[in-house]
Design brief:
There is one protein chain. This protein is an alpha+beta fold. It folds into 2 domains: about 90 residues, no CATH class; about 110 residues, 2-Layer Sandwich (TATA-Binding Protein). The chain contains 5 helices and 5 strands. A 5-stranded antiparallel sheet has the order 1-5-4-3-2, covered by helices on one side. A hairpin with a 2-residue loop joins β4 and β5. α1 packs antiparallel against α2. The longest helix has about 30 residues. The termini are far apart.
């Protein structure tokens, strides 16, 4: 039973460290590269794989008393396997480099205060070919998780604070006769597995849904 208890503790050690790393990063105690890259994707993942190995050993030992601790050991092994697989998949996904500044108009880019880079396009995401109403723009931003910072007749702006490590975005919807463009810029400098493009698509899809 002692091995079972230890295996159960190890099974949740990785997720618990990730939660702590999120809190530390969001509160500015540690930088993003430490909270995400070191504490989560390195240390947390090592803990997860160690927990999986220990769960396998625990299950083997529990075969001698399977009726009492066997089912618990199987459950711990299943949880440990799921946690290790999640760490593995997420580590590979977040390592994919994607654009952090994207727009549906590259010729006349909608402005975002404090962002001076050159945005790029996201595959398959294009401008809305109509002049949307201001309330549609507001609804599209809110539907994508943004808090509205400005809402006028010809533009809407918002900020989005992602829960995971505070990886947020800023957005600008520019409304003109016959066309509505969107720009989204990440508020971090880190690979995000294409999350910024997914956010842009969510805003544009919200605008398209208002047609």
């Amino acid at each position: 039973m002692g091995y079972v208890r230890l295996a159960a503790g190890l099974a949740v050690a990785g997720p618990l460290l990730t939660f702590i790393a999120v809190l530390l990063t969001r509160n500015g105690i540690v930088p993003l590269d430490v909270g995400l890259d070191v504490l989560t994707l390195k240390v947390g993942q090592v803990l997860a794989w160690f927990a999986l190995g220990f769960a396998v050993i625990t299950l083997a030992l529990s075969l001698r008393d399977f009726r009492r601790v066997g089912l618990v050991s199987v459950a711990i092994l299943a949880v440990s396997g799921a946690v290790a697989a999640t760490f593995f998949v997420q580590a590979r996904a977040i390592s994919v480099a994607g654009p952090l500044d994207v727009s549906t108009d590259l010729a006349e880019v909608p402005g975002i205060v404090g962002v001076s880079g050159t945005p790029v396009a996201c595959p398959g995401v294009v401008a809305v070919t109509r002049q949307v109403a201001p309330e549609e723009a507001t609804a599209a931003l809110q539907g994508a998780g943004f808090s509205i910072t400005e809402s006028q007749l010809f533009r809407s702006r918002g900020v989005r604070d992602g829960f995971w490590f505070g990886m947020g975005h800023e957005a600008h919807i520019r409304i003109r006769p016959g066309r509505t463009d969107v720009r989204v810029a990440a508020r971090y400098d880190h690979t995000d597995g294409g999350q910024t493009c997914r956010v842009l698509k969510a805003v544009v899809d919200g605008l398209q849904a208002g047609t």
